[in-house]
Amino acid sequence: MLTKFSLDSYLKSLDVKLPEEKQFQTLVDELAYFKSLGAIKSNPHLTWDKSISNFNFERGYLLYCTVSKYKPKNILEFGIGYGFSTLCMAWALMELKSNGKILTMDYVPHDQKYLQYYKNSGKFFKRNISRAEVWQKIAKQSWINKIQIETGYASETVTKITAEPFDFIYIDGGHYENQFKHDFFSSLLLSNSKPFFLCDDYMDKEDFGVKKFVDEEIAKYFKVDLIKTDQSNLMEKNKIATTSGMCTIEGSRDELIEHFGIEHIQKFLNKYRKFEKRLKFRAKLNRKIPFLKNIRFSRVIKKHRNTFNHSKK
Fold first, then answer.
1. DSSP 8-class letter at 162
2. What's the CATH number for 2-258?
3. pLDDT per residue as tens digits for the range 138-158
């Protein structure tokens, strides 16, 4: 069953303190901005500044507060990006004086420089900088000490995890349906008996499959809360998505596995991991032989990402 909440009403139901405003705003300004190609395509007359936005920065409140509420010991995160969400969770763990840890993964190395947008004194800037450099600049070392970073594709990384079972899982990796399904199934097998899932990018956006999978394969059978985190409606105003937010999924590990069937889960994971291995090989070839990027392999990728067999048997 899916229940809808505004962000304010959901946070109120958690009955925990919000993060300190000044520190939170620093994280937003340094880590939560990006240039929205979707906004540019749908609104070609947007100015350069308006195409840079902090869509869904409110997810930071939700991450901080759910960690504060559920006091997890072992957090698994798919997709670091700039690290805004990761640091919000680490901050909450430190406020709890908890021994909890975060294992997070991304295919972009922590020390790799890349173009990033940020805000300072009301103006936007861009810089070529690594995630590690930004964290050293704005995050407390006690937060960073809570975080273990694994670099690589999720399909490879999850097979190497030897940590204790995870009780809190945040999925914000690939947004195609089968990428999300891989991350959900993989983390389910790595979870403890009663995991709490928080999933980003529940939206009706082309090529995004989180909403479809949750609506059709989970919400009909398990408790799902949808929290509207884009309170300013930037996604809708910029014609990126009319429905957007984050959702929680609650159910016992055994019930979820029984619902999907362990054979189906393993079969799907094996098939997807073979596909992502090919994807990684292609990316490696593209770096060595740049002209291959012009060959429309992306169409093949898109087709295969969305055409796995969804039957349960």
1. -
2. 3.40.50.150
3. 999 999 999 999 999 999 999
